[in-house]
Amino acid sequence: MLKRLIYRCLGVACMPLLITACKTPALVTKTENRSVPVSYNNSQDSTNTGKVKWRDFFTDPNLVALIDTAIRNNQELNITAQEIQIASNEIRARQGEYRPFVGLRGGAGVDKVGRYTLLGAAQANAEMKPGKEIPDPLPNYYAGLYANWEVDIWHKLRNAKKAAINRYLSSNEGRNFTITNIIAEIATSYYELLALDNQLAIVRQNIDIQNNALRIVRQQKEATRVTELAVRRFEAQVLNTQNLQYNILQRIVETENRINFLVGRYPQPVVRNSQNFNTLVPTTIQAGIPSQLLANRPDIRQAEQDLAAAKLDVKVAKARFYPSLGISAGIGYQAFNPAYILKTPESLLFSLAGDIAGPLINKNAIIATYYSANARQIQAVYNYERTILNAYIEVANQLSKISNLEKSYDVKSREVEALTQSINISNNLFNSARAEYSEVLFTQRDALESRFDLVETKMQQMTAMVNIYRALGGGWQ
Fold first, then answer.
1. Cross-sheet strand order for the sheet of 348-357
2. Which residues pair with 378 in a beta bridge?
3. End-to-end CA distance of the chain
4. How far, in Å, CA of 192 to CA of 461, rounded?
5. Residue 32, φ and ψ in degrees, nearest 5
6. Residue span of the signal peptide, if any (predicted)?
7. Do 251 and 202 lie in a common domain?
8. pLDDT per position in the chain (477 positions), as tens?
């Protein structure tokens, strides 16, 4: 009979709350677009270089050693590892919210009741046996267990936990994306370092060639075949070339330290072999199909997890409009004398209560939270779509760049060969007084620039290979 009465009272109390809770504000929603073009260049080959592990993609042992050290020591990766731990702790916190909270409580106190109060008058009129009078003032000792539990009727707490799980997965994907970028940065800087070494070698070779030409011009001046102007022009050319090496040396130091920073160590020489740089052949890239980006790219998967969490946040915010059911309970002992505190059942006490509460008037804060959660969800949709679009464009750009750089390198190689031959020709013509010294200078300058450009093109080829690997989602495996 009592149980039926409690259920009836709760039902009557819930009716107005349920009626008001059903009136949630309308939202403008947006659904994400997951479609991508069917191919990059009308090819349906699903073989994808992005699935290759980085240890198999990079074959230079010095570069592999640098990447391996960076994955262990890089500070940014260590920071993201702690972010993952924070996200994991958030799951644990959310998981505990929809389970009962149980605690232990104990205490002691003393009360002095006024004689002319209701409780004081009742104590004065109470008939007590001798030796059993109520003490005045009245001590109070208690110890027991208590519990509180919010019944998750609308899955508000469960959805909050699921959102925390999605953000944990997002932080993992964020770390994978960081690994991909760090590997790409180290590889790009490493190939730039090899290119700078080769450019420095070219400069020093040209210094030797130009010093030799300067000696010949001085001899010709002594023989009155050329003027002092020719000697000075050749000297200026030598000094200009010598000056180039200092700029390259500075760039080498900065590039080495960029690698050292990524590896997580203080400045030191970077071990490398630059001798065979011009013979390096970029790894053949197979781009697969665009839909594979959704699974391969960590940043896309991160945006997807953030979107899933944002959708759950909207559900959590919506559940705040509905009434919440709470249950509280307690059991323990209480007495005014420590000698009586464990007497059962005289000192035993327990309680069980349930309450329902829901918003009725002035729901502005709840409405604002609801609208903000929806706005963040729409932001997550746009971010997800933007990430997919950016990934596709990155791959398309790098595929085009690889093709054009391959053609450019072939043309530049022929240009270098022609200009290298022209140096000997111009020197022979100058020695036989059939060419002006300016032609020799211009030929040497053009040859130097073309060799620089050839090395630069090779570096761009290797960088494009690294970038397409990163764009396809490679590196984190």
1. 101-111, 138-151, 324-335, 348-357
2. none
3. 65
4. 11
5. -70, 150
6. 1-20
7. yes
8. 444 544 455 455 555 545 555 578 888 888 889 889 998 888 788 889 999 999 999 999 999 999 999 999 999 999 999 999 999 999 999 888 878 899 999 989 888 877 778 777 776 666 555 555 667 787 888 899 999 998 988 999 999 999 999 999 999 999 999 999 999 999 999 999 999 999 999 888 888 877 877 787 787 777 776 777 877 887 888 888 889 899 999 999 999 999 999 999 999 999 999 988 988 899 889 999 999 999 999 999 999 999 999 999 999 999 999 999 999 999 999 888 888 888 888 889 999 998 998 888 888 999 999 999 999 999 999 999 999 999 999 999 999 999 999 999 899 888 878 877 776 666 666 666 555 555 666 677 777 778 888 889 999 999 999 999 999 998 888
15, part of any domain: no
- Main-chain phi, psi angles of 24, to 5 degrees: -90, 145
Q: Amino acid letter at 383?
A: N
**What are the tokens at 340?**
């009586």
- Report how far residue 302's alpha carbon sits from residue 387's, in angstroms, rounded to the nearest whole number: 10
- Say yes or no: 142 and 184 in one domain: no
Provide the residue range defining the domain that includes 332.
Answer: 101-151+324-357
Q: Could you tell me if residue 186 is inside a domain?
A: yes
Six-digit token string for 183: 């590997």
Q: Give the rounded distance of the alpha carbon of 277 from its chain centre.
A: 33
CA distance 186 to 62: 11
Q: Are the C-beta atoms of 466 and 184 separated by less than 8 Å?
A: yes
Token pair listed for 413: 């190689």
Assessment of whether the complete model's pTM goes beyond 0.90: no
For residue 105, what is the DSSP state? E
**How many other CB atoms are found less than 10 A from the CB of residue 369?**
16
Segments in 280-319 forming alpha helices (H): 293-296, 298-319
| Residue 126 sits in the same domain as residue 255 | no
User: What's the maximum distance between 2 C-alpha atoms anywhere in the chain?
Assistant: 142
